[in-house]
């Protein structure tokens, strides 16, 4: 959206999604304020997070998710789960007798059949297993 303002015989063209407001400066009789599209009608999918930029906005995917172009999603685009096990086959290779299991937005290393966890960690990526 473009706004044009006429003042003292001059035209000021506001950038996309910005509105003019008067200021005290005699050099720049108008300053351009950004409209926060994230507070108004943005087109980010509910799975994405809206981030305001000057004159526009971006839709960002949360950790563990991606859009078509990586972490930035196109407006309306669904953020899809990253399959860390498929994209990073070595995700659990540091630990013996485990397999990688993809989770929504994350992954965990799980003991192979017939093995038991030998140590518990706060991080499910660090599971170690014994027979």
Features of the shown structure:
131 residues, Laminin, 1 helix, mainly beta, two-stranded antiparallel ribbon, 13 strands
Describe this structure in words.
Residues 34-71, 81-122 form the EGF-like domain. One of its GO terms (molecular function) is calcium ion binding. This is EGF-like domain-containing protein. With 131 residues, the chain is mainly beta. It has two domains: 2-20 and 27-81, Laminin; 84-130, Laminin. The protein contains one helix and 13 strands. It has one helix spanning 84-87, and strands at 4-7, 10-13, 18-22, 30-34, 49-53, 56-60, 65-66, 72-73, 80-81, 98-103, 106-111, 116-119, 128-130. The strands form six sheets. A three-stranded antiparallel beta sheet has the order 5-6-8, with no helix packed on it. The protein has a two-stranded antiparallel sheet with strand order 1-2. β10 and β11 form a beta hairpin. The longest helix has 4 residues, at 84-87. The termini are far apart. Mean pLDDT is 76; it is low at 1-13 and 21-27.
